Amino acid sequence: MGKRLTLFRYAGLAQPFDEHLAMRERLQVLAQNRIVQPVLSTSQPLQAPWAVGLFNKLPILQRIPARIVGVGVRPEHVKSPVAAPTA
Hints:
By secondary structure, this protein is an all-alpha fold. 59% of the residues lie in helices and 0% in strands.
């Protein structure tokens, strides 16, 4: 049977998780305030930023935002004696 994750052991794991969560929330607030709110509050026709046009002209660049959304800026790496690799 696997080891149980006690509250004491969890406390050592919580700090990096909390830092990532705080960074993710800051990015969400930034996106809301700088992108979503201005777009929703205008009745004028919108023009895409130059970077969006660049993504359309060079499709390989579309991987960048997709990776940031899918994997994140700082991907997680599990280091656990329970999940040790088998040889």
